[in-house]
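[Meeting: bench + compute handoff]

Bench side (C.D.) handed over the final construct sequence. Compute side (W.E.) agreed to return the predicted structure before the next meeting so the bench team could plan truncations. Sequence as handed over:
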Amino acid sequence: MVAYGFDPEKLIKHAQKLDLDLELYIVSRQGVLISFEDARRVVGRDEEAGVSIRVVKDKKLGHYSFPLNSRVDEKVALEKAVKIANAGNRRVKRPPFTFTDSVTEVSGLYDPVGNIDFEEGVKLCEDCMRAMRSILRGAGGFPRREAKLSLHLSSSVEEVTVTNTYGIEKHDKATYYSFRASCIAEGGRSRESTVKRRFSDLDPVELAEYVAEMAMETMPKDVIQEGRADVLLHPKVLSRILNDAFVPCICADVAGALLMRDKVGKMVFSEQISVTDDGTLPALAFSARFDDEGWPTQRNAIVEKGVFKGFLYDNLSAMFNETLSTGNARREHYTADVAVKPHNLLVEAGDYDMEELFEECDGIFVIDALSAAKPTSGEIDLEVLSALRVKDGELHSALHPFHIKTSLQHILGRVAGVSDVREETPGYICPYVLVKSVYCFA
């Protein structure tokens, strides 16, 4: 692949002449961004392309990156990567590069529709705004103070190439369609987001209507009393807890993994909790045929009926632990080095229908929250933004924002029930989970 005047094969051959081990990650992305913030509108394009170089010189690993439009000379780029390797202290037994040419066949990752048409995207956002305002006016009258509404619609077409001096060259093309909506009305607030791989799977109007309805539903009328209560977690809230507290514990390159260091094969959570990472599921937000090192994606069992089964790895962390990559090398950006991250984290559904869960819960239904966690200890502080009281199986008054002080071990250990339905948020598919005796305070 030759793009922007950059020829990766030329750089690979040059590295081989110098007896260097080299890996190239090349990405180009073209996107469309449409943002509505009340009356303010922003429409634009998002275009970016860059190269990430990893090189091993004298068993030292170096990383260097540059944008493709900068016209950096290949030899100069390689020299800089070698200089960084020599100056650093990242020693490796062998190059942590992919050596297999296999890929995982995953369907539904590319939509020939490509990027959203500007006019169509703007019309979609206008339809969403009208739908939200209609709901706010209709449900008990429009709030006394003007509601704050925001919408963000985007699409991108991304091409990725991973190649190295082991003779591996893999190329893929993918599409992403993202939509976020939020509404604040009289203290009631709601926000939702979704990422789809096919434009036809995106339904912004339906999501926007749901956001407006939940904002009306959660206008606060009551104040939490300090103490312990049963808490029913919305899948969206569970996904945020997993992202902040659980994910760092299962990624072998993160200090938070120390929490699980000696726990493989041991019971760590409730037997009602089973978690897998799966990058092979069709059309899901972060599914892929191979990871950002070129390793084929796979399904990874992490927790089975409360028992911790193992960590996620990239090539480097796998080498240090004398195992193989699990296909979880991810880059946030081409300028960032590789990090271990899950693709799509799935929590297995349980046996409770929603009516049974509400009957079991004599406490609080947490609908939205911000999460802060200490992965090395598992401590979690939830700032609850939207919640409803639950009494006798029925939803009652909305609560003013409050806090929950808990831990990962408590949330996933003292589980009283798991729903038989799940909901998808970007990167997660989770059920509703009922947790007993959670400490809450205003």
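W.E. noted at the follow-up: The chain has eight helices and 19 strands. C.D. will use this when planning the next construct.
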